[in-house]
């Protein structure tokens, strides 16, 4: 089972924050507080952007939680090119001002990853009941590819942190066609907390 030790500030931002704080200290030491002020503001902004608050994961084994913070912009039936099937696609738009962490919509096993030259990345998770769920992400503005930290073949828990998309992305959640959708287009959702759909057996 994938296990990630949670930190309130995402590890992907530690280096940038450290550099901003170091620049603040050096500028204050050699030139004074006025010169250091822009670097201090930058450090505060980075702390805000890379925040990663813990989430209360609901007790709903067949529920699918939102993989990201953002807005559910569209719900359509599409052809899932990853698994060659018909699927319901829930498109979610992340906010550019964070939170950038992505979370697993369900508990299960990571079967496969896809990384495209166009900056897209996708992860196939199969539940213990045999349901197939695909999370597809378009690259963020500040990274070449969305970061995925759960290797193929490992298990992951529902709502657990599984990736990072710097400065946000458009996310597609592809689920079986008989899935019951719990949200409507336009709804705001929180990653790991809000149930957006329920698998039906």
How would you describe this structure to a colleague?
With 201 residues, this protein is of the alpha+beta class. It has 2 helices and 14 strands. Strands 9-5-6-7-11-3-2-13 form an 8-stranded antiparallel sheet, with no helix packed on it. A hairpin with a 5-residue loop joins strand 6 and strand 7. The chain is elongated, with a radius of gyration of 19 Å.
Highlighted features:
single chain, 201 residues, alpha+beta, eight-stranded antiparallel beta sheet, 2 helices
Silhouette: elongated
Beta-strand proportion: 35-45%
Structural class designation:
alpha+beta
Largest sheet: 8 strands, antiparallel
Overall strand count: 14
Report mean pLDDT, rounded to a whole number: 90
Give the spatial strand order of the biggest sheet.
9-5-6-7-11-3-2-13
* Count of alpha/pi helices: 2
Low-confidence runs of at least 5 consecutive residues: none
Ends distance: 25 Å
Helicity, as a percent range = 10-25%
Over the alpha carbons, how many angstroms does the gyration radius reach?
19 Å
Helices and strands, in order, run as HHEEEEEEEEEEEEEE
Topology:
Layout: H1 14-31, H2 33-49, E1 63-65, E2 70-80, E3 85-94, E4 101-103, E5 108-115, E6 120-126, E7 132-138, E8 147-148, E9 155-156, E10 161-164, E11 170-175, E12 180-181, E13 188-189, E14 195-198
Antiparallel strand pairs: 1-14, 2-3, 2-13, 3-11, 4-10, 5-6, 5-9, 6-7, 7-11, 8-10, 12-14
Helix pairs in contact: 1-2
Gist of the model:
This protein has 201 residues and is of the alpha+beta class. It contains 2 helices and 14 strands, in the order H-H-E-E-E-E-E-E-E-E-E-E-E-E-E-E. It has helices spanning 14-31, 33-49, and strands at 63-65, 70-80, 85-94, 101-103, 108-115, 120-126, 132-138, 147-148, 155-156, 161-164, 170-175, 180-181, 188-189, 195-198.
